[in-house]
Amino acid sequence: MDTVAQIFTKLTYELNFPMFIVTTAVGDRRGGCMIGFATQTSVHQGRFLACLSRKNRTLPVAAGHGPGELLYFDDVRHIEPGHQA
């Protein structure tokens, strides 16, 4: 019988989650990372929440209120090394 963790892993493996990447810069400091948690927070006056881990080195740069960019990928495919496009 599968454990709860195994069932959860199988379920999330089958879901097609979008991938969000944030990039930011303050002065000569640069940062960027994949976002672990993101959600829409408002419909009228559209707002979006992108959560960064305290342990991520991008957080201090982003907290410096530098310009940021959120990149969205909804069709990410794994490409094997050596694959010819």
Task: Walk me through the structure.
With 85 residues, the protein is of the alpha+beta class. The chain has a domain at 18-73. The chain contains two helices and five strands, in the order H-E-E-E-E-H-E. It has a three-stranded antiparallel beta sheet with strand order 2-1-5. A two-stranded antiparallel ribbon has the order 3-4. A hairpin with a 4-residue loop joins strand 3 (37-42) and strand 4 (47-51).
List keywords for this structure.
85 residues, three-stranded antiparallel beta sheet, alpha+beta, 5 strands, extended, 2 helices
Fraction in helix? 10-25%
Structural class: alpha+beta
Give the number of DSSP strands: 5
Count of helix runs: 2
Q: Biggest sheet: strands side by side, in what order?
A: 2-1-5
Strand content: 35-45%
Element-level helix/strand string: HEEEEHE
Radius of gyration: 17 Å
The gist of it:
With 85 residues, this protein is α+β, with helices and mostly antiparallel strands.
Task: Record the SSE blueprint.
Blueprint: H1 4-14, E1 19-26, E2 29-34, E3 37-42, E4 47-51, H2 58-63, E5 68-73
Antiparallel strand pairs: 1-2, 1-5, 3-4
